[in-house]
Amino acid sequence: MRKGLSHSARSAMFAPLDQIGRAEAVTARLVDAITLGLLADSEQLPSEAELAAQFGVSTVTVREALVALRQQGLVETRRGRGGGSFVKTPVNPSAASWRERLRTVSLSDLRDVGDHYLAIAGAAAKLAAERSSPEDIERLELATEDIRTATGAEASRAERQFHLEVAAAAQSPRLTREEVQLQSERGGLLWLPLEPHGTREHAYAEHRAITAAIAQADGELARKLTEEHILEAIDRLADVHLDLLGP
Length: 247
What we know:
This protein is mainly α and about 250 residues long.
C-alpha cells in the first residue's frame, strides 16, 4: 500500500488550530494524521519549531503534545545526529476489537453519523469532479487500486484513504478537515473491516466508478455514486450491529 496522502490532505491536517495553546488539540490532530495514514510509519515529523509555526502554538505546547504521543506509542524520539521524532504506525486492531467497539454504539447514532458523512463525502465528490487536477486523478486511481488489493484491516485503511483523497481533490481545506474529523470520530466506523468474504471486487468496482466520474468532471454522477456507496455501507454496518446485539 502507498505511504502518505496528497499534499492538500496533509496541509489541512497541519493548518493552524482554532484554539491556540492547547496541547490536547495538537495531540489529537497528530493522532488523526498517524492513525488515518496521513503520516507514514517511520516518517520524521517536522521540528518542534516548525510544528509550532504550522499549528500556530508555542513550542512548549508542541513539546507537551509529543510527550503525549510517545506515551501512546505513536511517536519515538531519537537523539544525536539524524535524530528527531518519528512516527510509529499503530498495529491494526483485531476484528474482535472492532466488533466490540461497534457493539457499544446505538443504531440511531450510527444512522446520524452516516447522515453527516453522507453530506460531507457527497459534496466532496461533486467538488472534486469540478476542481481536481491531473495529479489528483492519478492519486485517486492509485487509491482505487489499493482497494482492489487490500484485505482485512488494510482494506479499511484503504477505504478511509480513498475518501480523504477525494476530499483533498475538492481543493477545500475546511472540507478536508471535516472529513478527517469524521473519520477520527465515529465516522470511521463505516469502514470497519467487517465485510463478508467475496465483496472486494464489488468495492473495487464502486470506487472505480466514483473515480471515473470525477475524472470525467461529472459532479452530479460523482455525488450520486458516492452517496449510494455510503448508504450501502451504512446498511451493511447496521446489519452487523443488529447481529452483534442478538435476539
